[in-house]
Amino acid sequence: MPPYYAVDCEQVGARLLDDLITGHREWAGMPASTVLSDLLALQANTAAITLGSVDASLDMAVSMRGEWETLLGACRRVRELTGGYLSIEPVSGTPAQRRLHLRASPGEDKGQQLRYQKNLEAVEREENSAELATVLY
């Protein structure tokens, strides 16, 4: 059986990297849907991503604060606090419009595969050498 890898596609979510939480914002005991809605309202992009659905099991009270961080980073922190999966999907009939969803499961397994030279043009690997050290004897 081949190894399985986690895949994170940030092409559409990269829109949220352009905008920052300026100053200090704090949410104390607010539902996750309210926090996500507030975060998405801070976008300066004219083709803003709007809030879609938040599964009821994940719409729990969230306490967090944001200060000078990207909206994508803040949305990911909401996901870390509640669990589940973030997805950004086009609105049916108008693909230029996107909605952010927080769901308990990623969806059904349809047996789709990402394979190099089939439906994947390139593979990029990032290595973090922050903890790499050279020792001389």
Describe the structure.
- The chain is built from two helices and five strands.
- It is of the alpha+beta class.
- A three-stranded mixed sheet has the order 2-5-4.
- Strand 4 and strand 5 (94-103) form a beta hairpin.
- The longest helix is centred in the middle third of the chain and has 12 residues, at 71-82.
- It is globular, with a radius of gyration of 18 Å.
- The model has no long low-confidence stretch (mean pLDDT 85).
What is the spatial order of strands in the main beta sheet?
A: 2-5-4
- The helix/strand series, from N terminus to C terminus, equals EHEEHEE
Strand % is 25-35%
Query: In terms of structural class, how would the helical and strand content be classed?
Result: alpha+beta
Percent in helix:
10-25%
Distance between the termini: 43 Å
Inertia-based shape = globular
Mean pLDDT figure: 85
> How many beta-strand runs?
5
Summarize the entry for a quick read.
The chain has 137 residues and is α+β, with helices and mostly antiparallel strands.
How does the SSE layout of this entry go?
Layout: E1 24-31, H1 32-40, E2 49-54, E3 61-67, H2 71-82, E4 85-91, E5 94-103
Parallel strand pairs: 2-5
Antiparallel strand pairs: 1-3, 4-5
Helix pairs in contact: 1-2
What would the keywords be for this entry?
single chain, 137 residues, 2 helices, 28% strand, globular
